[in-house]
């Protein structure tokens, strides 16, 4: 299980040095994510992808549940009105179709919606700062926080997310 640590860094030089320090501390690059405003130079940094910067995963989960529920309800209505010989099959098929369509449509919307987890950082990002999100094992949280506090006095610790989502 991992925890996500948030840090705000003032400039590209500080962000690059921080990334190098984390790599030397044996944090894999795939667990280091940087976010900055559009148009800000991210050369040499591992930029966060759409899974970390949008609400895609949460929207897909919501769409799956709502789609399956609505599909099942439509399946019950169809089976009742048509007098189907296998009403359970109709309900299951419609629930599956609803789940697929709900997941697809919701994920399309979620991929274009900024992450609610990152909205509190938007003013700093608009000022040109860099947001570091580093996912570390629970046993190393204190060690990594102390490393960054000691080596990056210009950076600001912005909190800890107790549960890192499985996908981003």
Written overview of the protein:
By secondary structure, the protein is α+β, with helices and mostly antiparallel strands. The protein has two domains: 100 residues, Alpha-Beta Plaits; 55 residues, no CATH class. Helix content is 50%, strand content 15%. The chain has six helices and four strands. The protein has a four-stranded antiparallel sheet. The mean pLDDT is 87. Keywords: Membrane, Transmembrane, Transmembrane helix.
How many individual β-strands? 4
> Which H/E pattern describes the elements?
EHEHHHHEHE
Total count of domains:
2
Strand order of the largest sheet: 2-3-1-4
Write down the CATH class of the largest domain. Alpha Beta
What shape does the CA trace take? elongated
- Poorly predicted runs of 5 or more residues: none
Distance N to C terminus: 13 Å
Rg is: 22 Å
Helix content: 40-55%
What fraction of residues sit in β-strands?
15-25%
Task: Tell me the CATH topology of the largest domain.
Answer: Alpha-Beta Plaits
Question: What is the average per-residue confidence, as pLDDT, rounded to a whole number?
Answer: 87
> Main β-sheet: number of strands, strand sense, barrel status?
4 strands, antiparallel
Question: How many helices?
Answer: 6
Instruction: Briefly note the structural class of the backbone.
Output: alpha+beta
- The CATH architecture term of the largest domain is 2-Layer Sandwich
């Amino acid at each position: 299980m991992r925890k996500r640590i948030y840090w705000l860094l003032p400039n590209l030089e500080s962000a690059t040095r921080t990334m190098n320090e984390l790599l030397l501390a044996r944090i894999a690059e795939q667990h280091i994510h940087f976010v900055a405003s559009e148009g800000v130079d991210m050369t040499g940094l591992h930029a966060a992808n759409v899974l970390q910067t949008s609400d895609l995963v949460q929207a897909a989960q919501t769409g799956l549940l709502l789609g399956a529920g609505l599909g099942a309800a439509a399946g019950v209505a169809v089976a009742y009105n048509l007098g189907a010989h296998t009403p359970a099959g109709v309900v299951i098929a419609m629930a599956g179709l609803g789940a697929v369509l709900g997941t697809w449509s919701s994920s399309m919307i979620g991929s274009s919606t900024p992450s609610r987890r990152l909205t509190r950082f938007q003013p700093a990002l608009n000022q040109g700062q860099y947001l570091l999100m580093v996912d570390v094992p629970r046993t190393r949280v204190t060690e990594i926080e102390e490393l960054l506090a000691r080596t990056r006095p210009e950076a600001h610790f912005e909190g800890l997310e107790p549960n890192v989502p499985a996908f981003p």
